[in-house]
Amino acid sequence: MREAYFFTRNPRLAAEAKRLRNYTCEVCSFNFRQHYGALGVGFAECHHKNPLAERPEELWSQALTTSLDDVVVVCANCHRMLHRQRPALSVEVLRTRWEAANQ
Ligand SMILES: [Zn+2]
Ligand SMILES: [Zn+2]
């Protein structure tokens, strides 16, 4: 997966985004520590905002992608849901859907 590879190559960006957002999902507010205890401490996934995530790998240059604004912190479930469609859903759209289904 291209996106995972990107974050592997930019570990500091991913770590900083997760830390700044408290390791809490920006869609559903799931927090792994809250639900899994010590095992979940410091765990979250990073999502790269589209359409960059769908661009060819050669365009995944540092210059294009170092901004924290391009990174969304999500739980594993929401991350999979974001990528359920191509191009991926935006966080805002997924959050609206999540809220509609979880009233
Ligand atoms: Zn979530
Ligand atoms: Zn993603």
> What fraction, in percent, of the residue positions are helical?
40-55%
Estimate nothing, just give the exact number of structural domains: 1
H and E string: HHHEHEHH
- Classify the secondary structure makeup into a structural class: mainly alpha
Radius of gyration: 14 Å
Poorly predicted sequence stretches spanning 5 or more consecutive residues: none
What is the number of E strands? 2
Bound molecules: zinc ion
Write down the overall mean pLDDT.
Answer: 87
Task: Give the biggest beta sheet.
Answer: 2 strands, antiparallel
- Shape category: globular
Strand content: 5-15%
Number of helices: 6
| Side-by-side strand order of the widest sheet | 1-2
Report the end-to-end length measured between terminal Cα atoms: 33 Å
Question: How would you characterize this protein structure?
Answer:
- The protein is mainly alpha-helical and 103 residues long.
- It has one domain.
- It has six helices and two strands.
- Strands 1-2 form a two-stranded antiparallel sheet.
- The mean pLDDT is 87.
- It binds zinc ion (2 copies).
- One zinc ion binds next to α5.
Keywords:
single chain, 103 residues, two-stranded antiparallel ribbon, 6 helices, 2 strands, 8% strand, globular, binds zinc ion
